[in-house]
Amino acid sequence: MKLLDIGEVAARTGIKASALRYYEEAGLISSVSRHGLRRQFLPDVLLRLRLISMGKSAGFSLTEIAAMFGSDGAPDLPRDVLHQKADRIDRQIRELSALRDTLRHVADCPAPSHMECPSFRRLVTLSGRHAARREKTRRGGREFG
Amino acid sequence: MKLLDIGEVAARTGIKASALRYYEEAGLISSVSRHGLRRQFLPDVLLRLRLISMGKSAGFSLTEIAAMFGSDGAPDLPRDVLHQKADRIDRQIRELSALRDTLRHVADCPAPSHMECPSFRRLVTLSGRHAARREKTRRGGREFG
DNA sequence: GCTTGACCTCAAGTCGGCTTGAAGTGGCAG
DNA sequence: CTGCCACTTCAAGCCGACTTGAGGTCAAGC
């Protein structure tokens, strides 16, 4: 079983050793042994780090990510919670698509002021067609989306 | 021309007044006048705030967002830069889709350890099929994705 | 004309996510 | 045996994005 030195993990993932230590501290990854002082990781950590990176992309906090992927890398959460997370990601994908389309539109549309371009306004407003949820919508709440 | 009081903007968007003031400070939005002390905004600010919210979703910093959407809400950047941003978003969408699929898979797959489930591993590894870029890949760099 | 309450300013505080610096350790090459 | 150098710990620092608190202002309603 070949183990990876923290330095190698850093090199292969592009994540600094300091960040890896921080992740371990936070319970996101774990080293299986030491070689001298040096942490050694199972190769699986690479997969796990990809998962973490994706989670971060999706705007989840490290704490949420830790909760999502339990000890063996498999989510511990009940099915419905997982599906909720997936739904949240779906909404975000829609938002991102709208932004991407908006940027591309703007790159190509010659209108003098985009605020007056109907296609522009339509793009921005798209994906926002549900009522603005008010009230304490703290952490994880979608703002007026 | 009906103007919006900051309180109304806050109510309609779900963004706290303090955050709106912060955004104004940062040059992301601007108030057009005061009623007494109170900031008044053009209705367009709502659209602009949607744009900002989307940009945040996409992981752009406020500074990047400010650069993206110039004074009138229209991006100031050269076409190719805009397309680059759009490409970055596209990659992120792919990552998010992979995460979403992974979550859904895990919610439904009965394998005891997902680390050993080939579909799981495939899903995680998907969207990661280009070489890990090393070196100072600070801010905006995609990690091993 | 006084109170009220939603706003104002400005400085300081908070939180997440790391990074940096100082001081130490230990395997390995020469 | 001696460096060396990549790692270690721990505390402190930093940045972005806000929030909070103290103290102030002012249009509107009674």
UniProtKB/TrEMBL annotation, chains A, B:
CDD domains: HTH_MerR-like_sg6. It holds the Pfam family MerR-DNA-bind. This is MerR family transcriptional regulator. The keyword DNA-binding applies. PROSITE patterns: HTH_MERR_1, HTH_MERR_2. It comes from Jiella endophytica. GO terms for molecular function: DNA binding; DNA-binding transcription factor activity. Keywords: DNA-binding, Transcription, Transcription regulation. InterPro entries: DNA-bd_dom_put_sf (IPR009061), MerR-type_HTH_dom (IPR000551), MerR_fam (IPR047057), Tscrpt_reg_MerR_DNA-bd (IPR015358). The lineage of its organism: Bacteria, Pseudomonadati, Pseudomonadota, Alphaproteobacteria, Hyphomicrobiales. It comes from the Bacteria.
